[in-house]
Structures are given as structure tokens and as C-alpha cells.
Amino acid sequence: MNWNKETEKITKEFTFKNFKEALAFVNQVGDLAENMDHHPDILLHSYKKVTISLTSHSDGKVTEKDHQLASKIDEI
Ligand SMILES: C[C@H](O)[C@H](O)[C@H]1CNC2=NC(N)=NC(=O)C2=N1
Hints:
The protein is an alpha+beta fold. The chain has one domain: Gyrase A, domain 2, CATH 3.30.1360.20. It is 38% helix and 22% strand. It has two helices and three strands. The chain has helices at residues 19-36, 64-74, and strands spanning 10-15, 41-45, 49-54. It has a three-stranded antiparallel beta sheet with strand order 1-3-2, with helices on one face. The termini are far apart. It binds ligand H2B. Ligand H2B is lined by residues 37-39, 56-58.
């Protein structure tokens, strides 16, 4: 299997005190995504880190929707 070329996206890593706080953050991001009908890729890793990646799949690139959701996530 070939390696996939990364499509255009914006990514940010968040670090929390523990797994429980990281998971709570993931759920809050999920609520925002559902409200916007715009969904990130979410990776909860190293037990207390969350990496969020945003791209607009229907456009195949980063759009204003991604920046809007990123701003809302930063306000959590
Ligand atoms: C039908 C539904 O509105 C679409 O599939 C939405 C869902 N969430 C989405 N999220 C993202 N990141 N990109 C999209 O193109 C997208 N499309």
C-alpha cells in the first residue's frame, strides 16, 4: 500500500492535565462540530493530548468553515 499524500489541512495539538480532561475536550469539540455540521479529524493520543485537524472534504481544501470551527475550538 502506498503512503497517502496529505491533503490541505490545518492542525493543532492540545495538551491537558489527564485523560479525563482530554476526553471532555473531545466531546466539546464534537458538540461544536455537530452544531456547525462541519467535522474535524480528532486524535486523542499520549493519554492527555488531542490533535485536531481541519479541512473541508467537499472542497478538498481549507475553507472559511475550517477557520470558523478552529476559532470556536480555541474558545473552549
Ligand atoms: C451532509 C453533511 O452536511 C456533509 O457531509 C458535511 C459533514 N461534515 C463535514 N465536515 C468537513 N470537515 N467537511 C465536509 O465537507 C463536511 N460535510
